[in-house]
Design brief:
- This is Glycosyl transferase family 1 domain-containing protein.
- Keywords: Transferase.
- The protein is α/β, with parallel strands linked by helices and about 350 residues long.
- The protein has 2 domains: about 190 residues, Rossmann fold, CATH 3.40.50; about 140 residues, Rossmann fold.
- The chain is built from 13 helices and 12 strands.
- The strands form 2 sheets. The chain has a 7-stranded parallel sheet with strand order 3-2-1-4-5-6-7, with helices on both faces.
- Helix 4 links the parallel strand 4 and strand 5.
- The longest helix is centred in the C-terminal third of the chain and has 21 residues.
- The protein starts with a strand and ends with a helix.
């Protein structure tokens, strides 16, 4: 019998996509009457970048185990490592823990007695051998995948099909922008050297002098959304993604999206709704940006039709109502007794 569903989310105070998804799921389940909570490896976490009213617990045992993987000299200099703060034992033995794939070993070692559900938002942890078939089968009673590429990786391991909960695009933030400014937006968090090379080359070559290049970094989700509504073009620098939310949010906002799919973006980013570039082909990338801008100058109607088509597709396929329904169906089978007991 499960008493609560607890989501482990690491101590992150920036709007990282994967953490935001788990926060959204926890909030949805709580709204549907499930006993839900969050716990972290640092005290005082609030996750202010997404609205929720859930209690965030602190588990020192998780922090202690994370520090145990640090070099000895660093551990010795870390306050509280040898005498960690006593835990209030926020996690109880009858709690069901929802675990992101990157934290699988950490949570298993910290709470070996608990039931666990694995959430796969990045296929790398499966294809690089970090999470094997036997390890997943023996430690998790269910696997949830958020994208096609993650579902495929689960299948290739020979495991039962993953429960699929598609990601959701927040329509209140990322909606089609009709009027655009001469702005080229991009996120510099991935592929730093490549981003600098491409952006600097586009500026140096002089064909886009009437455009502002706007990096979207260190912003809230609302600020990112506002900038995407402004931008005519979004440069995608996705890299080995499980899905890749930024290009999808840019499409929803009516941007012309050019760049890398990051593999996970293949399920939505194709030539009908954007301009995918072969991974690492920086020359083709620069030339395509210049070509698309020139095409829009010459015949904006054709590319504006693409913008509308891309936005409509993203908002239809990645609708929050459908994502929420899939999540509720998944947890009705995994932990329906939690809701029944409320």
């Amino acid at each position: 019998m499960v008493s609560r569903i607890l989501f482990y989310i690491p101590a992150i105070n920036a709007p990282v996509g994967g953490a935001g998804v788990l926060l959204e799921w926890a909030a949805w389940l709580g709204q549907e009457g499930y006993a839900v909570g969050l716990f972290s490896d640092e005290p005082g976490q609030t996750y202010p970048y997404i609205a929720h009213d859930l209690t965030v617990g602190y588990e020192p045992v998780v922090k202690h185990r994370k520090m145990a993987w640090l070099p000895l000299r660093q551990r010795l200099r870390t306050p509280g490592y040898w005498t960690p703060t006593p835990s209030a034992r926020n996690v109880r033995p009858d709690d069901l823990i929802v675990v992101p794939e990157f934290a699988a070993e950490l949570i298993i070692r910290s709470f070996p007695e608990n039931r666990r559900v694995l959430v796969v938002q990045a296929q790398d942890w499966l294809v690089n051998g970090s999470l094997t078939r036997d390890y997943i089968a023996s430690n998790f009673e269910a696997v949830i995948a958020t994208s096609q590429i993650c579902s495929d990786a689960i299948e290739l391991l020979g495991l039962p099909p993953a429960l699929r909960v598609p990601l959701a695009i927040d329509r209140s933030l990322f909606a089609f922008g009709e009027a655009k400014k001469q702005v080229i937006a991009y996120m510099p968090r991935r592929r730093g050297a490549e981003v600098r090379l491409i952006v600097d080359a586009l500026k140096m070559r002089g064909k886009l002098q009437d455009f502002e290049f706007r990096p979207l970094d260190g912003m809230t989700r609302a600020e990112v959304a506002a900038n995407l509504r402004d931008a005519l073009v979004f440069l995608a620098f996705s890299q080995s993604e499980g899905f890749g939310l930024p290009p999808a949010e840019a499409m929803a906002s009516g941007c012309l999206v050019i760049g890398y799919t990051g593999a996970g973006g293949d399920e939505y980013f194709d030539g009908d709704v954007g301009f995918p570039i072969s991974d690492g082909n920086v020359g083709a990338y620069v030339r395509k940006v210049e070509e698309v801008v020139q095409r829009h100058r010459a015949d904006p109607a054709a590319l504006d039709a693409m913008r509308r088509r891309a936005s409509a597709r993203i908002l239809e396929v990645y609708d929050p109502a459908g994502s929420r329904a899939a999540l509720l169906a998944a947890f009705a089978g995994i932990a329906g007794e939690v809701r029944a007991a409320m």
